[in-house]
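Support request, please re-run this one:
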Amino acid sequence: MLALVDSHCHLDRLQPDKAFSSLEQQIKHTQKSGVSHMLNVSIDLDNVKQVIKIARDNANIFASVGVHPSEVGKHKFTVQDLVNLARHEKVIAIGETGLDYHYENTDKERQQECFRQHIQAAIKTTLPLIIHTRDARKDTIAIMREKQAEITGGVMHCFTESWEMAKQALDMGFYISFSGIITFKNADSLREVAKKVPLERVLVETDAPYLAPEPHRGKPNQPLYVKHVAEKLAQIHNLSLDTIAQQTNRNFFTLFAGAG
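Re-run finished. Output below.
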């Protein structure tokens, strides 16, 4: 059976599914249905222990430690705090972190400070970074260069930016991850970017429970739907789904060596 990896999801935030008595049962069903591994990504410090617990309690589920840029105003933390949280054996990445200038009244300085802290923590732990960037191309790349993010590398998650930015990240050794957005009807420009990214540097993700792909757009997302992302990527490159699955799986285990 074809197996895929969901390189970025938020299992702790999935809405309860009436078909299953527990999240663990839903995870087992997902894995039996062809999504063999999942990376459960932290977005705040309030829930990071739950993120790690889900990974600890389920085979082939892994975790990250980080604070989403939109959440940094709610938390005070140090580089060492992130390092300490990342000591669990199922933690394989630092993030998600980065910059998000989409909303008005964004505290850009605080986001930038926290982004730098995450890069420092990644270097200290030798773990790859998971980077979120939205409407902040110039500053994101500038801070990655300033703090030498290329030392650890990582992934530009749920990528929706330009080819120019993708190329800059690729040049620093980063991977580019595509979500269900590439299936949206209005995402032609993003599909053009996906066509240019070398397949050996591509990941697929759901970002569940957000951004469900077609034909589930508008509904809660789930890791099972990563197949739709892979199918669209296969269509973009005129390759088989099996080829895309094998390559993106290989990329995941190369980047996130702790999952191997």
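The chain has one domain: 4-259. The radius of gyration is 17 Å.
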